[in-house]
Amino acid sequence: MRENFDKALQLMLKHEGGFVNHPSDPGGMTNLGVTQRVYEEWVGYEVTKQDMMKLTPEDVAPIYLKNYWEKASCDELPPV
Predict the structure, then answer these.
(1) For the stretch 22-37, what's the b/e string if a residue is b when 16 or more beta carbons lie within 10 angstroms of its beta carbon?
(2) 67 CB contacts (<8 Å, ≥6 apart)?
C-alpha cells in the first residue's frame, strides 16, 4: 500500500543516517543511504561532494520510491 511508503522511508532514514565517505566503503560517498553513483544516475550528471552533503529526505524520497519501493512491488504489501 502506498500509504506505507512514508512510514517505511522514515524508518529506513533513521538507520541510514547522514553523509559518509569512508575509504573502505565500496559504495563511496553516501548520504541518507543513497550512493553517489545512484544519485548521479538519478540526476543525469556528475555530482560533487557538496551536492552529496546537501541531500535532504525530500531529495532522496523519489529515488527510494522509484528504484526500490516500486521495483519490489511494495504497494502490494498489506497495511501495517
Answers:
(1) eeeeeeebbbbbbbbe
(2) 38, 42
Long-range CB contacts for residues 14-22, cutoff 8 Å, separation at least 24: 19/52, 19/53, 19/55, 21/49, 21/52
Count CA atoms within 13 Å of residue 78 on its CB side: 1
Full-model pTM? 0.87
The whole-angstrom separation of Cα 48 and Cα 79 is: 39
List the grid coordinates of 40: 548521479
- Sorted by where each begins, the domain ranges of the chain are 3-76
Radius of gyration of the chain from its Cα atoms, rounded to whole angstroms = 13
The pLDDT tens digits of the residues spanning 38-78 come to: 999 999 999 999 999 999 999 999 999 999 999 999 988 87
